[in-house]
Batch of 4 targets.
Target 1
Amino acid sequence: MRSPFAVLDRLDERRLGLVLVIPAIVLMLIVAAYPVLSAVWMSLHRYNVKVPQDYAFIGFSNYARILASRTWWTAMETTVGFAVLSVTCEFFLGLVMALVMNRALGKATGAVRVAVLVPWATITVVTALAWKWIFTPTFTFGALNWVMGLFAEESCVLCGRWTSILAMVFADTWKTAPFIALLLLAGLQSIDGEMYEAADVDGASKWTQFTRITVPALKPAILVALLFRSLDSLRMFDLAYVMTNGANDTKTTSMLSYDYLIRRLDMGVGSAMSVLVFVTVLIVAFIFVRVLGAAPEGADKVKKPKRARRSAELESVTDAMGRAQIA
Amino acid sequence: MGRDSEAGQGDMRRSRIRVAACASVLLVAGLVAAGCGGSADDANAGGVPTLGFMTWRDQTGLDEKNFRMCEKQGGGKYRIASVPMGPSVDQAREQLTRRLAAGDSSIDMINLDVVWTAEFADANWIIDLSKRVEPIKDQYVGAALDSTYYKKKYWAIPVGTNAALLYYRSDLVKQAPKTWEEMAADIKTVHETTPDINGFVFQGASYEGGSVDATEFLLGAGAKILDPSGKHVQVADGDGAEYAFGWLHDLMKDGGAPKVVTTFMEEDSRLAFQKGDAVFMRNWPYAWALMNQDKASKVKGKFDIAPLPGFDGRSQASVLGGQNYGIAATSKHPDLAWEAMMCLSSAPVQRIKAVKKGEMPTLKALYTDGSLDKDIPFLDVLAKGLETGVNRPTTPYYNDATIVIYQAYNDVLNGRLSPKDAVKQMQHKLQAAVDGKAEI
């Protein structure tokens, strides 16, 4: 009897490769493309699950309603404010941590790497709850009392808008600075030590070495770290949900879409909000790869055709991602 | 290279391809199956119908005991399997509505919060129980029964009710205040000798509990929220709402309540009060037992309770909390569900729940037959609260309405909105909400 796979034997390598990835592509379409497209489709409708009979195509009305509302722009302000502040803090703190780990630790790095990842590996809801308690000194939970001493009994960090946002930035930095540090550490360790030796011979100062060797060589890792964190923080939900539940205009855009999708079961408006969050994230990702993801120094001199340069950028990004995974 | 070895490599390539192809197909099939699996209907295992009961997660184990007891009483006609929800009211509602909107047929009985009746009835998620409730309705406390009534029909039976109490430090204050104004004055007096203690703690956070407190203050000052038809907002009529918000504003400004109260839910208030950090607290009856038993409690024997005050010369209101049991529209066994519900809300069950969990009974008889007097010494105070008890606004858009209420209230407490602006904003946004056009 002929095997059902016999037909594969007649294909050449390239076609065969394509055939073999078809199941994976189908899977990707099911789990990634379908939900996105269906959200876009739903966002063009008036559709509340509570009243399923009232379902109608209404074009971009949901978007118009959202973009005209003050609530949406307040949430956007909160989200972007949080993202900018948290990514900045995390990046610089992470960079310092990476530099220290690279220089000072030698053989202990393995153990330190694991230790440093503990905050990052803790579930965000758990850390958010812990920080909420710490920032609210009136709570008494035995073990945390000594930490609470750090904050004045009368202060109320989570009572105001920007103090709440800063508290979230603080919690987020605590959690993810180590992650950035590890990404950057992987980058640092791949820099050839001979470059520094050569620079020493040439009499370059440490600062010059840092700006001329370390930073350019680290660029792909920096790009990946910033990209990951920016996208993550623009979708931030859990910290705000747990720490303030959106009080004092601290709702993020993700929380707002959650409100509509889950609490009000309004699939139309909720989906439109999700699509807007998606588009925001997409724009930021595009800016990162396009504007910041310029080719390494020296590469511009050899005027490579645009396509080749782009693929070189992508290569360096994927390279750094791979290294981050290994790390 | 000889032909043999080429042929051998070809074979190897072929078998590798087959393995790879099989593996990738199996992987996808496996993932799809995993995603769709587990939907087998095991509700009828053993021939005895299992009644799915969506109710609060219960850590005491008391609910499970009651289920088993009722199964036995039903002669093995049905089994009860609880589907836990919670922990907060808002989360429970989300978990429930998601299932009901998707038409989950494994749910037969639902533990409904008192404010969900209109929304769930309007969405056709629960069935009309008027015929079954009508003959027995006189057994129930009036205000509790009212919470099951919508569009001239009864949609559930009341099984637990709750009215808030004013807790006060009897070692610092001689007599419980009758009005909120008196309470504010008492705080000032206490502060003269004990400046470090906080005055009044309550629920000021931006969540459902905030709406409950807000409604009490508003109605207590004589304001109305909705007209009886549930279609017209009346918050801005008269000066009640502005008076209540004005009083709250002054209380915060004068240091009568700590700033952090704007983040407080029930448990936060209780912890502050039991730490000895506050003179007055608005809370539900559950706190009474905890503060008398909890090892960490510093106020054992130093506090007392009173009915919730009102505003001087205006009004008084306790907003009722509580639970009703309803039957899901998708239930295949409504008769058995009713039977189980009657058992789970019978006098013995209500009595033990009152003692063990602080869920107050809805059966009138239990307030007068003396069987609870020993375990719940404040029963008469509570009964008084229930007499003047009011329900939160009845509207299918309650979920939109409550967000408007607790945000305005929280903004007043935080000083982000003046009382006047808050009332104006509430009137406007609430009207949009009950019109079904809640602003984004």
Note: The interface with chain B takes residues 3, 5, 8-9, 16, 19-20, 23-24, 26-27, 30, 49-51, 65-66, 69, 71-72, 136-140, 154, 156, 158-160, 244-248, 256, 260, 262-265, 269 of chain A (CB under 8 Å).
Target 2
Amino acid sequence: MSKDNLNPTVFAVSATPTLRRFKPLHLQNQTQAQKAFRLNARPSIASSDFTDSDSDKDNEEGISFIDEQEVFQLIRNINDPEHPLTLEQLHVVQQRHITVDHKLSLIHVTFTPTIPHCSMATLIGLCIRVQLLRCLPQRFKVDITVEEGTHQSEKSVNKHKERVAAAMENSHLLEVVNQCLSTAVDKF
Amino acid sequence: MAELVNGYLNDPESTFGQKALSELGARVVDREITLLDLVRLAGGALTAADPFERAKAVSLLAGVLAGLTITSPAPTVTPINAPNIDRVGALDRRTVAVLAQFVRDRLHDTQSVEDLLRAFQALLDSRLVSRNDAIETTRSIFKELNVQNFSQNVRFSAYRVFQSLLSLHLDGMKILGDNFIAGFLVAMDGEKDPRNILFCFSIVKFIIFNFDISGKFEDLFEAIYCYFPITFRPPPNDPYGITSKDLKLQLRNCFAATPLFGKLAWPILIEKLSSTSENAKLDAMETITACAPIYGGESIRKNLDELWEQLLEEILDSKPEVQRLAALQAITAVTYSLSTSSTSVSLLSSTDTLAKFLDNIIKYSLADLLEGTAPKESVRHLLFAAIKATEPSFYYVSTKVVKPILQSLIGAVANESRAAKYAVLRDFLLNSKTFYGDSTSMQDDSLPQNPLLPFKEEFFQNFSSALSSKNEFVVISGLRALAVLSTLAEFMSDHEVEWYFQTLLGIAINEPKAIIDVVIEILIEEANFRVDKVLTYVVPQLLEACTLASASEQAVLNSFECLVVLSDSSHNVVSVVVPALVQILQIETQNLEQVRNVISALEIIFVDRKLPIPQLDVVDVVVIPTLRTLVTRKIDDVWLYTDVLVIESVSRLFSSVMRTLDSRTQELLASVVVNSLFKGDMTDLGISEKPELAVADAKSALRNVSWVLAAVICNLRPEASILNVDIRSMLNYFVQTTIFNGTTEDAESNGYAFRIFEIVASILNKSNAEVVADFLADNNRLFKIIGGQEKTSLRIHSLVVVLLLWVTRALVMKRSSASELAKVTEFIDLLKNEGGDVIASNFYILAADDPSFGRGTLTKSAFAKTALLWQQKQFKHALPLLVAGFNEHDNLSKSVYLLALSHLMKYVAKSVILYEIKNLIPLLLAGLASKNVQLTHTILEVIQTLLKDAPQALAEHIESFVILLLQLTGGDSKSQSVDVRVLALKCLGQIPKTDITFNILFVLKPRVISGLQGPLDDGVKVVRKEAGNARAKWFLLLGKN
């Protein structure tokens, strides 16, 4: 398979914030200290009592809806089929090109091929779709399109969206897709 | 004698044969017989018609000879083949000459060759072979032997002989000259065995270095180039452990052994660069890097353009990193070799090879830098590789590139392009340091003037204006460039350098995080490079910013951050910062945040520090002022010591400080703390009035400070003692006040009691048997309470359980003998009684690596006395008892036993669990199905480590585990706690990556994938994340790796 784009531009990925050395006390070792306090605070607790504080708190504080960032996290580390680089590094996917609509249960992802005649565009779209099918709840409808004006045959690439099931029957294609997705696990 | 000879000849391999051989050898050594006698005795066999018979006789001779050189090796001090040495052991020159002749005469005898070579090797080892014999024998070997017809072993012997000949008779071999080379090359032609190839390569290299190869270098090159590039996969269990890397390196050394190879090698190397195999390319580039400096610039001239085109392909951003690095190194090496062969810099004309090569690079780079909107990383690396090679290359490239770049920066430039150009300019400045010196070599007149100097104004203007850009990348790359510029001599005035440091300071306090990170990186470098400037322009201002009322909260935090990091990087800084921070602590202020921040900063500075800070009296400078502030300061009418965050932080600070000290200083520190906090005598702190109650009392208002007391006492070294205190009464007092003095149940009382328990346990762990015996005798009542003989309140019972568990741990840890382990048995017996659940849920105290949740009480880092493998011994002791308890009792008590066991399992080495896994599987499953969250959580942690370290243990029952784990993930009902859901999902996600057989897992795949649908829609983000990850991993389970 000859490569379309031998020398793509690689973008600096904003590194996940590194832990800073200094922390104000109320942020420092918080969980540990609290845990120590909690366990120590009630040495006489029957073990069944142990649960309450935990789950109550989590249920109240931790509830959140799926947002753009969460979707981006799922696809940013997918490998480009051509290069040993991720879609994020190549600016193929960006968080600002993702929308989540909870009312309609609709997620829309727009991606940008590295060059207008990229023959891999369909495959990239397929990878993103498969990854989202695997990692998002069923109730969402996922729409994946090529960014307007970035690909020669936009329409034909966008049309492929409904053919996932058929594509997944093709064992060679499935292998390529899995290859690209294998870099996306254990990263978030 | 003849018997021995015949015995060997009949069957050399038999035990009798071997015995006969060593017996004969011994007799020759003892001069009972001579070697020539031996030849005579074996004479019949030596001339027998059957070649195998002859071979046996020769092997007898070779065996005896080899034995001789081992028992009496040649004296190494004498010069090799010194004519005055005629005899070594049983060998003399005459015999050796006769035997050498014998070897020559027999070489045509194919069956005997192996032993003949062995015999000749032995003769060579004796150093008695004359030069003539050496030459003659070598000639015969070349003439008679077709080395490649023989087995690997024989070939190896032959190469060994060649090597010995070269090292012992180099003069002789040089007389043979081209004949030797030709003979050897024929011998190694077609060699395929890796061990032999390695050997041959080293001989080839030796020949190249020692012979005149001007007539033969083409043949030599022919013999080695056919191996390039070497691909080799070592067979499993290779006894010689030869790797592909060894072979590659040896071959590369041969390639790089002589400049004569240059003309021959370049076309081949360049051809390999266009190979389809990435490995071959990599090898070719690495070989170019090694060879270019040897071959010299002249040899590349013809192939230069082709070489450039091939290398350019390999440096592109999209190539794997190893590939890119190798290509860049090759470019540097080629540039280097071209530079050394070219004329002086000033005469460098465009027709020169170096100029031609560099022009390619310059053209390519400028095209991208000046026209592209987003210049590529590869261009920067390419330029860097070219300019770092030599001064001429730097000079040539910089005069052609720097000016256009500077010009292109005038006016509006896209941010990405601007940032990239600054980075390129920085590379130039950085490399100019190597060739023209930095600010420290200012007086060095021998260095030529930096060609970048005329542009200094432009540099400064550009970089300093970058700092006010709105684009993060521009600011960062401007900063980095400025940092380099400021280190160069004559580029910035003193005034500008001062401005530079003040700018760093300003950014460190006020800018967004990404930029601050870069500044901190720069400041760390500066702290090592010119600490005086940092101490003058940065540190005092940072300290001031920490207390500035008008500063924003973020600015203050940034200042602390910067101080902490700088303290880490330099001794000079830390010994200024620590006293200054303590000074700030002593300022009477109503700002609680400030006090907390200072303490936090001090804590962070001391954590992870293994050695004391030089020239800092930590007791006077840190401990006493901090303690005084802690017990006397009131902020908004609240005592500082009631602030839990502060107390915890100070206790962590003190334990970190303690761990850096030797035992004498520890005693000193401990006596200050014990006097003030236990005895209530605060004169050491400069406080004269006595507080109402000693701190150590349960009812004392100051009792929170027990955290600090614990931090100090628990970290004493065993050889350090607590001065002027009666330990026995101190311990008894502690027990009395914590347990019986009617404390209420609240966080503060519990915190107090538990810190005191840790102190008791620590002291018992580090004391002698007498103290322990006294303590146990004095406090017999405690055992009655947990045994149920004495009725008390539930609270007292719980406290006693925790204390005694701590004491048991202290003792078992110190000496895990049967008598100590019996105490664990007692606890297990009590599990069935009322209150057993309290004991079980605190079992972690017995087993945990650090039962004090991060403070390190009773761990090695707190200098606890630790017996070897105590956790294992305890586990092995407790396991059968707990399993029996689990099996004997009804459902309610079952979980109590299981909980106790789960705590032990969590911390014991996984190999021990593996050993017992058959008994444990049902228990693990029961634990997962239990309604007790603490139990489920602990069991999940155990399963997580098992899946990581020993997944095979669970393989047989993996289906049961998967079903239970799926239930725990919540599914539709969100009954489980978040922690349990997340852990269960993590475990599920681990399973596909384990080495459990695909057949077993594949059956489960559909069930897991559909089971994880529910958790994908969980309300909590972390759960969704883990569920998505686990599900993706199960999808990727495809049965081939």
Note: Residues 15-19, 29-60 of chain A have pLDDT under 50 and may be disordered.
Target 3
Amino acid sequence: MLSVERSDEIRRVIDAHARLAVNATTLTDETDLFGAGMTSHASVNVMLALEAAFDVEFPDRMLKRSVFASIQAIAAAIEELQAVDAPV
Amino acid sequence: MPQSERVDPARSPIEQVDRRAAVGGATPDQAAFREELLARGLLIDSGVPGLYGRGGAFEDIRQRFDALVSAAAAPDQPETMRFAPLLPRRQLEASGYLHSFPHLAGSVFAFEGRESDAIEQHERASRREDWSAFQRMTDLALVPAACYPVYPALAARGEVPSGGLVVDAGSAWVFRHEPSQDPARMQMFHQRELVRIGSPGEVLEWRDRWSERGLALLRRLGLAAERDFAADPFFGRSGRMLAHNQRQQELKFELLVPLGGIEPTAVSSFNYHREHFAEHYGLLFADGSPAHTACLGFGGERVVLALLFTHGCEPGAWPAEVRHQLWGSV
């Protein structure tokens, strides 16, 4: 299950930067964003905007297409990064 | 040879900055090859890494290779277009190049000021000091790849015809701000480019057919060419993501030849842009759908260097078959 807050924030970033023809609220968490029209260049802008929005930095191993392919994939990556940063 | 990192008190500040600027190194083989090219007058040193003049023998080989590419392209019945090595700055801005390759781009600045400013500029320049304060950006940028002027020129005509077209952009000077001691990494060089505009199927079929043609062309010249998937040298962290995408989607491949480096050097590349340029410039079919584009380019100087490296720096002593390919019955 995705946290509602997190997936809402991801949708806001997608609306602002993915340059899709449709509103991100119409996408399911599993919708293929590249299939929905996100270009490689737009996906880079999404990546940078997600870093700013969630105060994380994607490591090199995450700088690839599959990590930004759906809202679910993005949320999983952010969750992993925030878990690393969280105080124990 | 690597540039000294030390500050030389005998030099003015701007020279010291120049000398400390990042200059790509060369392997011992590349350095020795560069020395031989200069000693034989094949290349003419300018004193700036990556900027050379070309001797007659060097230029002759490049032009002979160009003619072989033209002959190989003839079945495509390409439309010929030729452009200056300058691009309207607005076209560079529209192309997305500054997003992907800000580190390689070059733009033209020129003097703007009063007479007293001109005097001050000259005096500072004479002392090898920084005179950039008197320079303003013009409407011009250096062409980063030979195909860049083609897309806006086609878009200005209106809709892309059904079936698309092939454009022969010729052998054009292009600029990459990439100072290096490796003779195969020049800051200004010739790219022999062809461009295909059409449907995704037409464009991919053309690119794949040409990679076979290109490989055969280079192998006929006795070069140990191999094909491999590749990625462009995109800038920064976002660039690593773009490069990964490019490799994963198999959008770019190169023909590589041993040229004194640790790895073989690319002498040709085949690039499928999908709808990238169509979206930036509005290259659309009659039904409003974006045209796809691909380009292929041979690095003119790199092909010559590969021939000289492989067969030796005396073209008169090259294998007869190679000479026959380039010069006919000699």
Note: The two ends of chain B are 38 Å apart (CA to CA).
Target 4
Amino acid sequence: MSLAHGAAAGMGGIRTAGDLVARMQLTRKMRIAEAKAYVADKLTLGVEELSDVTVMREVREDYDIGIVTSVPGCAKGIKAKMHIAELLDVNINSVNRMKERT
Amino acid sequence: MVSYPTRMGDGHPISMTRDQLMADIIAGSEHAADRGDIPTLDEGECDHLLGLFMNPARVVGVQPGNEIVLSHDIGTLHLTGDQANSGVGIPLSRVQAIQVHERAFAADTMELAHTDYSWKPVKPIIAMEQQELENALLSTIVPLFYGAMPNLGLYYAPDGPLGNPSDLLPKGKIKEALEAQELAVEQAVRDMVYCCGKIAEVGGDGINLDTTGAAGDADFKAALLAIEELKSKHPSTAIQVGMAGEFVLGLHGSLEYNGVRLAGLYPHQQVKLVEQAGGDIFGPVVNTDTGKSMAWNLSRAVTFVKACSEAAAIPIHVNLGMGVGGAPLFETPPIDSVSRATVAMVEIARVDGL
């Protein structure tokens, strides 16, 4: 059923900017319009481009914040989240914990 | 006369004319307005709903730019669980199930959960859950919640140490039934704070207190008190609260939070208390009536959730699935109904997520 939601209205996760917008809801309690505007500003994109997979694929590659297909050498997991924390200027608890221990 | 395919609240296919659809849309909205003392949908919103039901497409979607983010109660259990959790029984590890959601299902967020999905049984195995979450956090990108239910029912006999209010009340033992619930609040808060604190220690992005209020007003109170304490100790850990039903059942009846009686609260009132406690995301629930059409049910659900969304200062992730949020009460709800409910919740109720 989550696939139906995704097809009808989902942002697209790490195919696009869904995870980034979600982070703004979790870390700053931003409503959807504010969260999208914040992320779009950080990425210097238009809000509608955040859900466009053709735009966001290149953006995610450029910032090295993780892409949905498996490509050797691209940041994955915690490394991608380290880049996201810097890019969005947000606290990511697991990233902070990693930094404290390395 | 032209009729349009739609469904009853149990998912059974039916056909309705334009006039019948509109009559049910208006009646559903008026029902919610009367129950919740909130405004009905206006003419334009009713027309928007009517357009969704008359749309011949099997699957409908929001206009580009209106997309929202998705969170997932029960999380990994969608894939690994049995039917009790709407699961499909695939033998994956939970980290693998999270990765499948992230990389194959386009999930914006994901959730780790224990099979029992209640905080009390998580407590003795919390180290296992921390270990699994640590592994998931290292290998995935999307924000990860850890989710479970307050489930005060587990604190009552025969599963727990306290007298069962459902047994005590019919015997006229009112005082004992009330005391049992008040003690259950204390024990549940202690368990939730302990478990969620452990989740925060290993870097979890968020906590999902799901199906809150399932055991009534004491259940909701326990969640609110746990949020207060958790946010004071772990302010960077987000807390999402998903509800169990559209109004808080008054099994106790006199419990209050910040001077507000909890019994009988509807979503637009519930969200204000979650905000006061420190919650970050709220998931309202509106139940589906299987004896009514989906036009009636979706209109009713959207009316409630629109009022909630307008009252809220925090993001709203409406519960939209089998039997809630304007979806039919069926284990695998038909995609035509689900996609219409999704669009209505986003474009009329203005939710921030599902």
Note: The helical segments of chain A are 2-9, 18-28, 32-43, 53-63, 77-88, 93-100.
